[in-house]
Every structure is written in structure tokens, then in C-alpha cells.
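Q: Here's a chain of 328 amino acids. Please give me its 3D structure as C-alpha cells.
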Amino acid sequence: MSDSNKILNTVKDSPIIHVAPSPHIRDIKTHTQRMMIDVLIALTPVVIVSVYLFRMYAVKQLLICIVTCLAAEILFVRMRGRSLTIKDCSAGVTGIILALSLPGSAPWFVGVIASVIAMGIGKIIFGGLGMNIFNPAMVGRAFVMIAFAGLMGAGSYENITGLVDAVSGATPLSALKFNNTPAIFTHLFWGNTNGSIGETSAFACLLGGLFLVFRKTASWQIPFSILLTVLFIAGITDLAAAASGMLIVHHMFGGALMFSAFFIATDPVTSPLTSKGKWIFGCGTGILIMIIRLFSGYPEGVMFAILIMNALTPLINRWTNPQPMGEA
């Protein structure tokens, strides 16, 4: 073999090295499993409140989604001929977040289908963790929301003995939008309202969310910019309608805003990498949430807003890509 062929073969066999602008700092404590454990800890207050309010309905939904997500991960990973990734806890986290975003009254097969779609189409089809474009839990929830709209109504509890009365009626945003019936602030804050099992208690979501921010598992820019944007638009709407703060309270503490701002929008895989990009992502999400809430037939718009911004994340990363020092 000639020297030129040897050099050519060496070049072909050499790994492709991508060079990025310095500084290059690696935190050995930051890895997938540690981040997922942080999320599990942060979700604990939300899970506790959901079980307290919705009793066995919450337990059922959590067990269904967790078990199905783990089983679906094993199945789809094996189908792709790759090694299992159960130990990173990401499938379990997806199952918990998905369950908390569903109403406890939804039939068992809704949770199963949502979990399979979340893991198969939302995650594994893209190549697995770190390669998915959309948040897997929201992909699963969006599918069942469209396919089983009637079963996804949070007010479908019937003949429930021992369940808190406040969680057996319409959701706060639905009651306000369609019946002009406001909810009490303390009920919104502590969770004595109806809705998906993980979204009712703003206090529990804030408590867990602030833990994620403190641990730097979640970037503070994203939830802060989402909440600030919703507060600004809700404030203008409240002043225009002379609602005396009623609209602000409902849009800030009702629905899935707090839960999604801290636990879903901050997903590091489907959100921008740069600080400027995170602000754009958060503000865009907040604007879309309020557009859907105010001008569409849906009382809630968080899920669709996050999925739309997930699709724009690669473009936002490109727009906000930092320029290397010294480059014109």
C-alpha cells in the first residue's frame, strides 16, 4: 500500500472533531441521572398534593404512566437494537410529568396510549434522550387531547365519595372563560380546584420549581420570562376589562402555567442553549399562551405554546449562537 493510501485511510478512520469557541468548562457533577433525580425530588410536593386531592385517581394515573413509559422505553430501545437507558431515570420522569398533566378521571387506556406515544414518537423515534425535538410528555398529552377530547375533560368525576368537593367541578380557567365564574385565590394557590392532577396547586409547583432553579437543573430565565410575559399581558387585559385583578390571578395561578413553566418548558433538550435564546423562548411561550387563552376556544394554551416553541428552538439557537472572539 502506498504512503498516500495509508494517509487517506488514516484520515477516514479518524474521529470527526467539532471545535467550539472557548472557554470549555465541564462540570463532572452534571449528568443525566443527577438532573433526573433533581427533577424527581422537585416533583415530590406536586405528587403529594395531587394524591391528597385526587386520592386513588392520582395514584392510578401515576402508576399507569410510569409503568407504561418504562415498558415502552425498553420495547422501543430494543427494537432499535440499542442498549437500555432505564438507569438514567428519564423515562420515569416523563411518566410522572405526563401523569401529572392528565386529569385523574381519564380512563386507564388514555394514560397507556399517551405514554406509548410520548416514548415512541416523542423520544425514541428521534434517536433517544438528547435528540428529541419536542418534549415527550407534551407529545403524548397532545395526542390524547386531540384523540380523546371528551375523556380529557377534568370535570368528568361522578359519584366520588370522599373527594374534595372543589375538584369535582369545572376548571378555574374554564369556569372563568365560559361562565364568568371566578375562583378564590387561596383555592388556586393551595390547589383546591379542579384540573389535571399536577397543575392545581401553584404552591407545590413553585416549591418544586424553585428547587430546580436553586440546583441549576432548570434555567431561571425560562420560567421567569414566561411568568413575566403572562403577567404583563394578563395585566393589560385585566385593566381593559376592569376586572380588579381577577384575570391576573386566574391566568397566573390557574391552569398549567406554574407546573409547565418550571417542569416542562425548562427541559434542557427541547429549550434553547444560550441565555438570550432562553429569554426569547420564554417570552414567545408566554405570548402564545395568552393568545390561545384569550382568543381561541381553548381555556388553556400552555401545551400547544410549548410544543410550538420547541419546534422553533433550533432556529433560536442559530439566531443566538455566540460569535467567537475576534471574528468579524
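Q: Can you summarize the key feature?
A: Confidence is low (pLDDT under 50) at residues 10-29.
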